[in-house]
Fold this sequence. Notes:
- By secondary structure, this protein is mostly helical.
- It is built from 7 helices and no strands.
- It has one domain (22-171): Lysozyme (Orthogonal Bundle).
Amino acid sequence: MLKDFQPxxxxxxxxxxxxxDPVRKKYVLVIIRHFLAQGCKETDLGKTFTEYTYHxxxxxxxxxxxxxxxxxxxxxxxxLTHDYNYSSFKNFxxxxxxxxxxxxxTKYVADNYPFISAAWFxxxxxxxxxxxxxxxxxxxxxxVKKVTxxxxxxxxxxxxxxxxxxxxxxxxx
Length: 173
């Protein structure tokens, strides 16, 4: 399962001469910083691995339309949402309990796959490593804004995410 998230061969340590180490280290650290910044915002600094609006066992009608994607509320480190994401992740991980019953999908993912679902969302669903790589000549601000828009579908929480990115940058050198 983890092999599915392995970086392309060009980033693998065993395939590169030692003089590439500083470049590879910098590239990998940039991705980790972005991943942590987004996840910290999504989980309120790790306080919750389920979206605050989530109620275990509630049907879609009990949410009265808010959020529109209920009962597939945010679950895991990247707060996986929407039925199509849960369905795709279920197929990827090959665990039918994720999607059935729907009213407990969020809690199930948050409890059993908080980081694997985040890695799947990051790498497989959204291709964020490639997006970050394509922004390598842009500012951290522009990259965080693009990553935020890809994760959220909007710039919601951008300034907080940028702050988390800068904090991660000060720690991960």
